[in-house]
């Protein structure tokens, strides 16, 4: 469980998080809100990249102020936006092996972990490829693999599908679903309301450094999203026109319409 208690944070005296309380566990939690609302700043507190100005963050009971990022990143993996900037090895295998090697695991353990991790993100067979030769979706899944190789319980994914074409986006969505099934807690930072509808179990809306909403996904989509500067997913607009109520997939909508 990650527990955020009365979190305040200021950059150079300017407060950008203003009293956030949040409990996050084994679930897909979408963190949404306008640019500059504090999403990244909040997420960076969860693995100790930033430390609270006031309040505290507990990761499975560990106070982030008392632990290093290296310690915390074994619990909370952070997959940054634009992952290609983080690759520096010649092969996919070496890229994923880098973290486990640094943990001091022996070669056979490292190899086993790399194979398991590449399997988990659907990149088996890519071991000898150069990271730069991968497609957008493959790069995103490699970035997830690099973080996953540290076996963190929680994953933070920052705009994981931005800039991807449909097919690549599907591959990342399927990867996220299978990570959730494997018992990971996933914090998804996104602007994409279609993605929120498809994946999230719960939504936290930040506005101006404060929580404006925290609740189940269905309740989130019953808000007047336009008032919050957000767009309703097309699927829900269509479902409403058809009088079908709340649905999460095209299949579900088709089923309702047939009834
Ligand atoms: P979001 O992820 O929701 O777009 P951020 O957490 O990136 O929001 O930013 C919240 C606020 O903090 C913004 O006003 C932003 O300009 C400011 N900010 C972000 N990073 C820094 C930084 N390194 N130094 C100073 N101000 C920052």
Automatic annotation (TrEMBL):
Stored Pfam families: ABC_tran
Residue intervals of the ABC transporter domain: 2-233
Localization of this protein: Cell membrane
PROSITE patterns, per database record: ABC_TRANSPORTER_1 (PS00211), ABC_TRANSPORTER_2 (PS50893)
Gene3D superfamilies attached to this UniProt entry: P-loop containing nucleotide triphosphate hydrolases (3.40.50.300)
UniProt-recorded Gene Ontology molecular function terms: ATP binding; ATP hydrolysis activity; ATPase-coupled transmembrane transporter activity
Assigned GO CC terms: ATP-binding cassette (ABC) transporter complex; ribosome
This protein's UniProt keywords: ATP-binding, Cell membrane, Membrane, Nucleotide-binding, Ribonucleoprotein, Ribosomal protein, Translocase, Transport
Function, as annotated: Probably part of an ABC transporter complex. Responsible for energy coupling to the transport system.
Family indicated by similarity: Belongs to the ABC transporter superfamily.
Protein name in UniProt: Ribosomal protein L34
């Amino acid at each position: 469980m990650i527990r955020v208690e009365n979190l305040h944070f200021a950059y150079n005296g300017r407060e950008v998080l203003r009293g956030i309380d949040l409990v996050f566990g084994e679930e897909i939690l979408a963190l949404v809100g306008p640019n500059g609302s504090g999403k990244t700043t909040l997420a960076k507190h969860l693995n100790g990249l930033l430390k609270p100005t006031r309040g505290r963050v507990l990761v499975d009971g560990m106070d982030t102020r008392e632990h290093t990022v290296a310690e915390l990143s074994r619990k909370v993996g952070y997959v940054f936006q634009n992952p290609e900037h983080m690759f520096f090895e010649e092969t996919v295998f070496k890229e994923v092996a880098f973290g486990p090697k640094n943990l001091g695991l022996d070669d056979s353990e490292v190899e086993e972990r790399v194979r398991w991790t590449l399997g988990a993100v659907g990149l088996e067979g890519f071991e000898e490829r150069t990271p730069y030769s991968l497609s957008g979706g493959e790069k995103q899944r490699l970035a997830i693999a690099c973080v996953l190789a540290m076996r963190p319980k929680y994953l933070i994914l920052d705009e994981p599908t931005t800039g991807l074409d449909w097919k690549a986006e599907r591959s990342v969505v399927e990867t996220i679903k299978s990570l959730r099934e494997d018992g990971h807690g996933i914090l998804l930072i996104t602007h994409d309301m279609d993605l929120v509808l498809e994946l999230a179990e719960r939504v936290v809306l930040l506005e101006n450094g404060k929580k404006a909403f925290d609740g189940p996904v269905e309740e989130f989509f019953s808000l007047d999203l336009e008032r919050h500067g957000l767009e309703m997913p097309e699927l829900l607009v269509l479902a409403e026109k058809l009088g079908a109520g709340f649905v999460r997939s095209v299949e579900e909508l088709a089923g309702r319409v047939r009834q």
